[in-house]
């Protein structure tokens, strides 16, 4: 009873001190407090969710790390929006009369409904992308003409980061066609175009040596580099091809290394590429 009496005295003192400003100041303070609490809860929830999913990575029987990261990001996003909606409702209930809100609902209901359609579409699309495992955080994908690594997958949007560091923010409901460059092993194809006058015996010797050296340098192969053979007899050149298979996203580094080694070997033996151009094809 004593505590209640003290609180009442403080309340009365503030009313006397602030006068007509008491209610507005109190409401503004309450709104600020609700916003701060909502932000803190959302941030804390994100940290807890990520820690829970990080522990899951240590289990013997588990999903892939990428899928766990994607689920953690998506669930954290859902939690964040739930907290924000709760905060908005708390603020509205404090500053607006319930009857006024209900009366305005008839007018604003149509507008809110139209906005909710887009939100529901994006949200459902996000869940289906996760359910069907179309892509996950860390995957390199192409959506329409946009290519990048999946940085975040949230409740409404997917964020891609391209090689230049640009961020693409794409609503999940607008994702129609996706090319995932990270799934399955990748083919390495390096073509060596040489003139008809070039000694093929020397070219084969160089190619074999390069294949052996690259095998020792990289541990990313599912199929080691080998000489496929002559793949084209052009009007003025012969095309010799080296192939291999690597884990996802490792093929480009291998291709660059093979090209560099072949170029260095050609320079040492005075051999020349046809038109001095090394062509790389992708499958």
Automatic annotation (TrEMBL):
<dbReference type="InterPro" id="IPR049278">
    <property type="entry name" value="MS_channel_C"/>
</dbReference>
<feature type="transmembrane region" description="Helical">
    <location>
        <begin position="28"/>
        <end position="49"/>
    </location>
</feature>
<dbReference type="GO" id="GO:0008381">
    <property type="term" value="F:mechanosensitive monoatomic ion channel activity"/>
</dbReference>
<keyword id="KW-1133">Transmembrane helix</keyword>
<dbReference type="InterPro" id="IPR045276">
    <property type="entry name" value="YbiO_bact"/>
</dbReference>
<dbReference type="GO" id="GO:0005886">
    <property type="term" value="C:plasma membrane"/>
</dbReference>
<dbReference type="InterPro" id="IPR010920">
    <property type="entry name" value="LSM_dom_sf"/>
</dbReference>
<feature type="domain" description="Mechanosensitive ion channel transmembrane helices 2/3">
    <location>
        <begin position="78"/>
        <end position="117"/>
    </location>
</feature>
<feature type="transmembrane region" description="Helical">
    <location>
        <begin position="70"/>
        <end position="92"/>
    </location>
</feature>
<dbReference type="InterPro" id="IPR023408">
    <property type="entry name" value="MscS_beta-dom_sf"/>
</dbReference>
<dbReference type="InterPro" id="IPR006685">
    <property type="entry name" value="MscS_channel_2nd"/>
</dbReference>
<protein>
    <submittedName>
        <fullName>Putative MscS family protein YkuT</fullName>
    </submittedName>
</protein>
<dbReference type="Pfam" id="PF21088">
    <property type="entry name" value="MS_channel_1st"/>
</dbReference>
<comment type="similarity">
    <text>Belongs to the MscS (TC 1.A.23) family.</text>
</comment>
<feature type="transmembrane region" description="Helical">
    <location>
        <begin position="98"/>
        <end position="120"/>
    </location>
</feature>
<keyword id="KW-1003">Cell membrane</keyword>
<keyword id="KW-0812">Transmembrane</keyword>
<dbReference type="InterPro" id="IPR011014">
    <property type="entry name" value="MscS_channel_TM-2"/>
</dbReference>
<feature type="domain" description="Mechanosensitive ion channel MscS">
    <location>
        <begin position="119"/>
        <end position="183"/>
    </location>
</feature>
<keyword id="KW-0472">Membrane</keyword>
<dbReference type="Pfam" id="PF00924">
    <property type="entry name" value="MS_channel_2nd"/>
</dbReference>
<feature type="domain" description="Mechanosensitive ion channel MscS C-terminal">
    <location>
        <begin position="189"/>
        <end position="273"/>
    </location>
</feature>
<dbReference type="InterPro" id="IPR011066">
    <property type="entry name" value="MscS_channel_C_sf"/>
</dbReference>
<dbReference type="Pfam" id="PF21082">
    <property type="entry name" value="MS_channel_3rd"/>
</dbReference>
<dbReference type="InterPro" id="IPR049142">
    <property type="entry name" value="MS_channel_1st"/>
</dbReference>
């Amino acid at each position: 009873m004593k505590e209640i009496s003290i609180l009442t005295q403080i309340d009365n003192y503030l009313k006397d001190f602030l006068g007509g400003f008491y209610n507005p100041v109190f409401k503004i303070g309450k709104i600020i407090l609700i916003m701060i609490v909502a932000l803190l809860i959302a941030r804390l929830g994100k940290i807890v969710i990520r820690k829970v999913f990080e522990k899951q990575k240590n289990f013997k029987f588990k999903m892939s790390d990428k899928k766990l990261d994607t689920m953690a990001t998506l669930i954290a996003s859902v939690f964040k929006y739930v907290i924000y909606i709760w905060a908005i409702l708390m603020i509205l209930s404090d500053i607006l009369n319930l009857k006024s809100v209900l009366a305005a609902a008839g007018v604003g209901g149509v507008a809110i409904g139209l906005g909710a359609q887009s939100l529901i579409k994006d949200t459902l699309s996000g869940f289906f992308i996760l359910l069907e495992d179309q892509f996950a955080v860390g995957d390199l994908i192409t959506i329409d003409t946009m290519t990048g690594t999946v940085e975040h997958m949230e409740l409404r949007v997917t964020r891609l980061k391209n090689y230049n560091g640009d961020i693409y923010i794409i609503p999940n409901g607008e994702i129609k066609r996706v090319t995932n460059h990270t799934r399955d092993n990748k083919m390495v194809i390096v073509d060596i175009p040489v003139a008809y006058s070039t000694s093929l015996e020397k070219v084969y010797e160089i190619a074999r040596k390069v294949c052996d050296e690259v095998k020792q340098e990289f541990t990313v192969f599912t199929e080691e580099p080998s000489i496929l053979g002559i793949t084209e007899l052009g009007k003025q050149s012969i095309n010799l091809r080296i192939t291999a298979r690597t884990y996802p996203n490792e093929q480009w580094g291998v291709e660059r290394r093979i090209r560099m080694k072949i170029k260095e070997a050609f320079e040492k033996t005075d051999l020349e590429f046809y038109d001095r151009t090394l062509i790389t094809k992708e499958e």
